[in-house]
Amino acid sequence: MNYFITGTDTDCGKTFVTALLVRAARAAGRDVVGAKPFCCGPRDDAEILAQASGHVEPTDAINPVWMKNPAAPRACELLGEPAADVQGALAAMRGLAARHAGVFCEGVGGWLAPVSAHYTMADFAKDLGWPVIIVARDKLGALNHALLTVESVRARGLEVAGLILNKTETCNDASARTNEAILAETPGVPLLAVVGPGEAEIEFPAPLS
Question: Maximum CA pair distance of the chain?
């Protein structure tokens, strides 16, 4: 039960959702951990996932590549940091998968965020080969961003395990009132959950069991 978590854009709530999924799986008795192979800027996201995982793994195992600039890994490299260790990150994720029954691996930025020259988060996900969960922020434009991401994931031969809609703000415009219903119509892509600010826990989605 290994999954790659991507988002429709930066700050769509990937870490928040990944931590919810990890806690829900562990509450259901599954030996699951969260992971953040690449962290750029503060390491808060990795610490959140380590805590959600019950600190069964050290932060360096959950987050093997830590870059200091709050930018895409390739941008960090252009700003003078060492190039992201892609092979090391892949090996770390596979190591976690070997030690646990499941890993929820959170990407950095959006689906096509550049990791190194000519290599994106989408390439990293393809190299892992795990089903993909897409987190979409509930706002105007969410439908286009989510469906484009679904299309791009499938174009790489990967399974879309489902969508999660994250209500990051209190909003009651036309898009917020209809995004959930329209995303639920996406053929072959279950809407796994709808989450909101301050949510502490969710039921583990049955399609992921």
Answer: 46
Task: Give the residue numbers annotated as catalytic, written as ranges.
Answer: 36
Neighbours of 17 (CB within 10 A): 25
pLDDT-wise least confident of 9-13, 69-73, 189-193:
9-13
* CATH fold of 2-132+154-161: Rossmann fold (3.40.50)
CB 171 within 8 A of CB 139: yes
Joined tokens for residue 75:
């941008």
How far apart are the C-alpha atoms of 39 and 4, rounded to whole Å?
15
H or E, element range at 166? strand 160-166
Q: What is the pLDDT of residues 70-95, one digit of tens each?
A: 999 999 999 999 999 999 999 999 99
Measured between alpha carbons, how far is 198 from 59 in angstroms, rounded to an integer? 24
Residues 119-161: tens digit of each pLDDT: 999 999 999 999 999 999 998 888 999 999 999 999 999 999 9
Rg (CA), the chain: 16
Domain ranges of the chain: 2-132+154-161
CB neighbour class for 132 (10 Å; exposed up to 12, middle 13-18, buried from 19): buried
